[in-house]
Design brief:
It is a single chain. By secondary structure, the chain is an alpha+beta fold. 30% of the residues lie in helices and 34% in strands. It is built from five helices and eight strands, in the order E-E-E-H-E-E-E-E-H-E-H-H-H. The strands form two sheets. It has a four-stranded antiparallel β-sheet with strand order 1-2-3-4. Strands 5-6-8-7 form a four-stranded mixed β-sheet. A hairpin with a 4-residue loop joins strand 2 and strand 3. Helix 2 packs parallel to helix 3. The longest helix has 14 residues.
């Protein structure tokens, strides 16, 4: 799902902030009764173009969140952020969730809800229009949003891929 080029080493991330997206109590039924544990999905980002998500599961909420943060730090990706927004419109599906993100003018803010908002804030995007269709499952929404952000390419990357100058990208 994530481009190999987008992978980020932990040494070059700076200060990462974590956001709890969702916490869920899960039950395992054994012959001795029910065993409860907690599952957490966490998003971490430096609010400067780096984001990652992780899942953690433990008997206590704080342990589940800590495990989620550690997992998220292993899955960091770099996202192009230009003037506080994204370079172009992008759509992505994951499971039953479908997300669409579009660049927005300065002053618009983050028009997104729930799990998508947490991911977009962690990346450092200030102005974006986002829409989610289908399932509102936070796990699938986070994965679809991060997948859409990984697919974004700025003009410099497009020029490098095509082997042309930056000026030729815009002039055709």
């Amino acid at each position: 799902m994530a481009n190999i080029n987008n992978k980020v080493r932990t040494s070059e991330t700076g200060d990462l902030k974590d956001r709890l997206v969702a916490i869920n109590r899960v039950t395992k039924v054994t012959k001795g009764g029910r065993t409860f544990s907690f599952s957490a999905i966490v998003v971490v980002g430096n609010e400067n173009g780096v984001v990652g998500y992780g899942l953690g599961k433990a008997a206590e909420v704080t342990s589940a969140i800590a495990k989620g943060v550690e997992d998220a730090k292993k899955n960091l990706v770099k996202v192009p952020v230009i003037n506080g927004t994204i370079p172009h419109k992008q759509e992505m599906r994951f499971g039953g969730s479908e997300v669409m993100i579009r660049p927005a003018a300065a002053g618009t803010g983050i028009i997104a809800g729930g799990a998508m908002r947490a991911v977009l804030e962690s990346v450092g995007i200030k102005n974006v229009l986002a829409k989610s269709k289908g399932s509102s499952n936070p796990h699938n929404l986070v994965k679809a949003t991060v997948g859409a952000l990984c697919e974004l390419r700025d003009a410099y990357t497009v020029a490098q891929t095509r082997g042309i100058s930056l000026k030729q990208v815009f002039n055709g």
